[in-house]
Write a structure and sequence with these properties.
single chain; two-stranded antiparallel sheet; about 5% strand; globular
């Protein structure tokens, strides 16, 4: 084992106490853990003396709570001891005499035997080391390994060893993993490869090669994309090396991403200081990931430019047609007058043609008449031909922006001998040789990609109707358009990509699937598919009958059926406006500086302990709390470090150093989790719930501008004006923002509902998720059901929901119902695709694929694809059940409505925080920077919610002791997502101690009568 100085600091002091500290029970926990069965009580009473019996009872209760043993003095357990004496010993005389060592160890042996556990022994160490070695291959994060080892010990019913034992074991396991990887890399990397990797760390003029690679694209402009392609080309040799070597290292995707993130966050100086093998590993992983990210950036640029070009061609073609029609409008009336001459009875038949001609010239001059007649003799204007003419006019744009992107990407196909790929390959070869497509003779490749309808627009046709050549500009655009179309449909894909790989390649293999599903314990796999579908179809049938019966009998007061028009009217729930209540309550609280709030919250839940520095593994560095508060506020409030330095007592260079060392999305996420978990422990938290048996969560997105453009930021004139922005997607539970992330303003929010729930790492786990109509798609009901989550969105349009009501079996069974199903659900399709659905579930379960990627790729399949159809059919089943429940029970509507109102209140708080420094924006120059800014904003909001909840908890505790029902009811309605009592602006003095917050003093001053 390693020495003490080499041990990893895996857990914070608070986390260590939670795992190894003596339990601190409240009354309800005492009733849970100190209530013994007859067998347990008999073992307690077998002890020789009263003090040994009490000690054994305490130890047994503590073991039931934490599966560990403790040595404690009687003074440390006074309250628990009193409970035991009162309940089991009738207040007998008790002498707090310490038990002997023999009694202590005898009691331990007795308790583990009673509960079927085994005490830790050195004999278990090899098995635990083997387990740690397996775990480290999945994730090298020390905290993850520790959690997995404790889960393993609990599963094997082994009392966990001391923290230092686990520290040493994990340290040694990680050290062995580094040595293993180092040996492999030393053997596999030759001198040329090592030189190429080290070259990334060499400074050239102002930036090293690695620093240049880290620069993110700001937009899809021509020069920016040239730089992206240059980076990708420069990485090509190293990427091919990484692609060959990394599979041989046998590291998981999770570890690969982790090593790549270290290369991104470490400075060039830090990377040079590390062992050479470590540096090579980090750089290889970074090159592998960065190359694929650059590929995705080119794909995004391709889609952006392609859409722009198509929109331009449509717009210009429509303008030409409109202009042509407008030009012909004045001629129309004149031509009508000319035609009327032939039926004018005043013009006799003997009139000479010369006179008639003179009358015609009086209506329309000779030259104009001749031109107009010739135009009318021509074929009418062809809209398709006009569109292709516009394409030719924009060919320079196509050659400049699209050609380099298509030539840089290496597409692959699920269809053998794909003609579109063959055509693209032909074009790439010609362009590489500086040859023109128009100079090439016709060949079979081109013929296959041109439909008969388009031959005359894309090819050169001779007098005999044979194709002799190709109209190069038009054909090039046509191929690009078809490649893009097939790429979106999944027919084409990119191997060297993060987001655009082949769908089937990303799924868990059929061989690994059973083992994965067994590990995950997902509700979908607990019962046979036939039994599940039977239960669900029976439930749907019962709901149809009950809904029709209730509607006929007029029991559904919120619904009104018009028998003549056969329409259903929905009287929606209107939430009460508690704005006056919130204003009245918070106006009675004294103002408090935001810095003091952060300091107070950190004293209560120690969230800053999660802000570990980015440094070599065993270096010791203590965080400066004041600097951390300042830099978090600077990012959250849209100040930036420079402006914060100007308005605070902390210099700019300290803020910058703190920002670089401590502010990472992973550390901020842990800090947010610490605050969220602390809020859940407050006495007010259960009273935020609508239903004590169900925990509701709400998801929604909030548009936020960005100070500097990035790839993820997009235009939206409605929300960002002339600027760009992103969407902060948040999951809220009982007013607590338990998880959040950024998505593009162009992305569909419904694609991320499952992801944000499944990736939640806090202790608050909602089992019902609500959302607005942006959260609904054709798969979310199915996916959430697979994992045991209830998806209950707030519906707004009744007619739309009635169009999505289906039944199982023959729809004619419901012919007499007032509201009829629109169709039948194909349950057989779901049964037939069970194995493929299991593959999808397993892949989502181990987080190898996100829901957003799954839905995007699944929806690109054709409608006839059986897997796509099966998922959508199952979604119809779950959605129909929920919709009927929603229509029958107005309480479901109220709960979903209230849940969504809460997240709207949180968005107001989040906007107020973001606008302190000016606009409602996120700071940062890269996508990673704005993600950090968003997490900082969530942390500030979390801290404010904790502070307000702590005040409400104190008031609740105060009045529950002497119940005043009116005040208690009022307190439970007050929302903690408020900032009227918080000072955001001003000069921040972090270095002084600030104003200490005394909750008891605040509560004492409140008058709530």
């Amino acid at each position: 084992m390693l020495t003490k100085s080499e041990r990893l600091n895996i857990l914070s002091s608070q986390e260590q106490f939670a795992l190894y500290g003596l339990p601190d029970f409240d009354d309800s926990q005492r009733m849970e853990y100190f209530i013994f069965t007859e067998q347990e009580l008999a073992r307690v009473l077998d002890q020789r003396s009263v003090h040994a019996q009490v000690y054994c009872a305490l130890q047994m209760g503590y073991f039931k709570a934490k599966q560990a043993f403790f040595q404690f003095s009687w003074d440390e357990v006074k309250d628990d001891c009193t409970f035991i004496l009162t309940r089991y010993f009738n207040d007998l005389a008790f002498l707090p005499i310490p038990i002997t060592k023999h009694e202590y160890y005898a009691q331990r042996a007795l308790i583990v035997d009673l509960f079927g556990y085994r005490l830790w022994a050195a004999d278990f160490l090899p098995a635990l080391v083997e387990r740690a070695t397996q775990v480290v291959s999945r994730d090298v994060t020390p905290s993850f390994i520790l959690v997995e080892l404790i889960a393993y010990l609990n599963d094997q019913k082994i009392v966990r060893p001391g923290y230092t034992t686990l520290q040493s074991l994990i340290s040694e396991t990680l050290s062995n993993e580094r040595k293993r990887l180092g040996v492999l890399l030393t053997e596999m990397l030759d001198d040329s490869a090592k030189t190429a990797l080290q070259q990334l760390l060499v400074r050239d003029d102002t930036l090293s090669g690695l620093a240049a690679l880290k620069q993110d694209a700001k937009h899809f402009g021509y020069r920016m994309m040239v730089l992206e392609r240059q980076k990708r080309t420069a990485l090509e040799p190293l990427y091919q090396l990484a692609k060959t070597l990394l599979p041989k290292l046998e590291i998981s995707q999770q570890n690969l991403n982790y090593y790549a993130s270290l290369a991104h966050f470490y400075t060039i100086y830090d990377l040079r200081r590390l062992k050479q093998e470590q540096t090579h590993l980090y750089l290889l992983c970074y090159v592998w990931l960065r190359y694929r990210q650059l590929t995705d950036n080119l794909v995004d640029a391709l889609g952006y430019r392609m859409k722009q070009l198509e929109d331009d061609t449509k717009l210009k073609a429509n303008k030409l047609i409109t202009q042509h029609l407008a030009n012909r409008q004045p001629e129309t009336s004149q031509i009508g007058r000319l035609l009327l001459i032939y039926v004018d009875e005043q013009v006799i038949d003997d009139t000479s043609f010369g006179e008639v001609r003179q009358q015609a010239f009086a209506i329309m001059p000779k030259d104009t008449l001749q031109i107009t007649g010739q135009r009318l003799c021509e074929k009418p204007l062809n809209k398709m031909e006009l569109r292709w003419q516009v394409v030719e006019q924009l060919s320079a744009h196509c050659r400049k922006h699209l050609r380099p992107l298509y030539c840089a990407l290496d597409f692959a196909s699920t269809v053998p001998d794909n003609p579109w790929l063959a055509a693209l390959t032909l074009m790439k070869g010609l362009f590489a040789k500086q040859q023109r497509l128009s100079q090439q003779p016709m060949n079979a490749c081109i013929e296959k990609t041109v439909s008969p309808r388009l031959r005359r627009y894309l090819l050169t046709i001779d007098a005999e109707g044979k194709a002799t050549g190709v109209q190069a500009d038009r054909y090039e655009f046509w191929i690009y358009r078809q490649i893009r179309k097939r790429f979106k449909s999944g027919e084409l894909y990119l191997t060297d990509s993060v987001q655009h790989q082949c769908f089937t390649h990303e799924l868990v293999s059929l061989e690994k699937m059973p083992a994965v599903l067994q590990q995950l314990d997902i509700p979908w796999v607990r019962q046979p598919i036939e039994a599940q579908l039977k239960v669900l179809s029976d439930e749907l049938h019962s709901l149809w009958l009950a809904f029709d019966s209730d509607l006929r009998q007029g029991k559904l007061k919120h619904l009104e059926y018009d028998s003549e028009l056969k329409t259903l009217t929905w009287h929606k729930y209107k939430a009460s406006n508690d704005k006056a209540l919130q204003e009245s309550f918070y106006s009675k609280l004294g103002f408090c500086n935001i810095a003091d709030v952060l300091r107070f919250v950190n004293e209560q839940c120690h969230f800053l302990s999660a802000m570990t520095p980015l440094q070599p593994r065993y270096a010791k560095q203590i965080a400066d709390k004041d600097s951390l508060f300042a830099v978090i506020m600077a990012q959250a409030m849209n100040y930036g470090n420079l402006k914060m330095a100007q308005t605070s007592d902390i210099p700019y260079h300290i803020l910058e150093t703190t920002h670089q060392q401590y502010l990472r999305r992973s550390t901020l996420k842990k800090a947010n989790d610490a605050i969220s978990n602390a809020i859940a422990d407050l006495s007010i938290f259960p009273h935020y719930s609508f239903d004590l048996g169900v925990l509701y969560g709400a998801v929604d997105g909030q548009k936020l501008g960005v100070e500097h453009p990035t790839i993820k930021a997009r235009h939206s004139r409605k929300h960002f004006g002339k600027g760009k922005g992103v969407v902060a997607y948040t999951m809220l539970c009982n007013h607590v923002p338990v998880n959040g992330g950024l998505i593009g303003a162009h992305e569909y929010e419904a694609h991320f509902v499952f992801d944000i729930w499944y990736q939640n790492t806090s202790d608050i786990v909602p089992m019902v998720i609500t959302g607005d109509m942006h959260s609904v798609n054709k798969a979310n009901f199915a996916i959430t059901h697979w994992f045991g989550l209830r998806f209950e969105p707030r519906f707004t349009n009744l007619e739309t929901q009635l169009k999505n009501l289906y039944c199982c079996g023959d729809p004619m069974k419901y012919e007499k119902c007032l509201i009829k199903p629109v169709g039948s659900i194909d349950l057989q399709a779901v049964q037939d695709e069970k194995s493929n659905i299991d593959q999808i579930v397993a892949t989502l379960g181990i987080k190898e694929m996100t829901q957003s990627t799954l839905i995007r790729k699944l929806c690109t399949y054709t409608q006839s694809n059986p897997t796509r159809s099966a998922v959508f059919e199952f979604d119809k089943l779950i959605r129909s059940i929920y919709t009927l429940r929603y229509l029958r029970d107005p309480q479901i509507e109220r709960n979903s409505h209230r849940s969504q109102n809460r997240i709207e209140s949180y968005h107001q708080l989040r906007a107020a925080i973001a606008q302190v420094g000016g606009k409602k924006e996120l700071t940062g120059r890269t996508d990673l920077d704005i993600e950090v800014s968003n997490e900082c904003g969530r942390l500030i909001a979390n801290a404010i919610i904790y502070y307000n909840s702590a005040i409400l908890s104190r008031i609740l505790d105060k009045y529950e002791a002497s119940p005043k029902l009116k005040i208690l009811a009022l307190i439970k309605k007050v929302s903690p997502a408020a900032w009227r009592n918080i000072h955001f602006n001003g000069h921040y003095a972090f270095r002084d101690s600030g104003q200490s917050i005394d909750l008891d003093a605040i509560v004492a001053k409140l008058e709530l009568e």
